[in-house]
Amino acid sequence: MSEFDTSLPSVRNIQNFIQEKNEVELKLVTDDLIVGKIVWQDVNCICLMDHYEQPTIVWRQAIVFIKPKP
Amino acid sequence: MSEFDTSLPSVRNIQNFIQEKNEVELKLVTDDLIVGKIVWQDVNCICLMDHYEQPTIVWRQAIVFIKPKP
Amino acid sequence: MSEFDTSLPSVRNIQNFIQEKNEVELKLVTDDLIVGKIVWQDVNCICLMDHYEQPTIVWRQAIVFIKPKP
Amino acid sequence: MSEFDTSLPSVRNIQNFIQEKNEVELKLVTDDLIVGKIVWQDVNCICLMDHYEQPTIVWRQAIVFIKPKP
Amino acid sequence: MSEFDTSLPSVRNIQNFIQEKNEVELKLVTDDLIVGKIVWQDVNCICLMDHYEQPTIVWRQAIVFIKPKP
Amino acid sequence: MSEFDTSLPSVRNIQNFIQEKNEVELKLVTDDLIVGKIVWQDVNCICLMDHYEQPTIVWRQAIVFIKPKP
């Protein structure tokens, strides 16, 4: 389980991606790379919205890395 | 272990999928993609019912993402 | 670590499989699918008995899903 | 982390394998299957001795299942 | 979840890599090897900056090993 | 997270490998096998020194087994 404290850099960075509507790449343990805008996060999950406005609720345990699109 | 607090977006979203009988796709760490309607969730598992009314009890630790079918 | 509270649906369902001697399929993180009857569960493991009355003690952390055989 | 309480079936079963010097198969998350006699267990690890009296200290987190050799 | 106590060798070593701007290799559970300079760490994540000054926020749970480049 | 209590066999064994400068094989979840001498351990990591005196900081969560070289 992740710690979910809004003063942590990891939590704040994601909060910034949400506010600034940054497009991000999310690499998953299955080696999938999904792309979209993060719309919310909680202690268990991060929700990504793709180009077709379809949400994907990603479990934090399955995340390998997040990269903001340059 | 996941946190199971019904005020969390991740828990509420799944609760909505149950109530609205949304069909969802569940991606698993084994790269399997299973499709069905969620019938219950608890702190350990999510139970999916397929088209033949057969249940699959999925461990939360094995979930990568959930996508409601558009 | 799983929560092991007998009032949870996930724990009760497995308890029912034990009492009713249901045959189940257990999908594991290694992609193995093992078949048998569950004979006991505790907070760490689930024990499956195959057709030759050979036990397999499966770690909960390695379980992806359980499906009762129809 | 596993619970390590000697009254648990999973812990007692392994204690029996140690005392009765049962040969066991250990399936690991890397899909390796190692064979030997368990010589000790603690909350983190299980130690297996092979035919050449070489020990392997296996992390519990990496165990998928244990099967006593028939 | 990792322990995040700055007196631990693992946390201090990474703190040193940050201060000395060491280039490191990070091996991930997906078998990816990413190279860069660590710019921050918290209890959940480690942030790596690549040659193009692009950040990658890596989840600790997905790290296999870190090697400073010789 | 592992328990890190120096009275545990798993922690003591590694402490012995450090003191006796035993060469060990470390099998990782990515199926890598790395060889070297353990130079320190803490609750999160184990540090291995290879033949070229290059350190590798291995996350405990990624360890499958340790084998002392015979």
TrEMBL record, chains A, B, C, D, E, F:
Q: What region holds the Hfq-related domain?
A: 8-68
**Known InterPro entries for this protein?**
Hfq_1, LSM_dom_sf
Instruction: Please name the Gene3D superfamilies in this protein's record.
Output: 2.30.30.100
Protein's name according to its UniProt entry: RNA-binding protein hfq
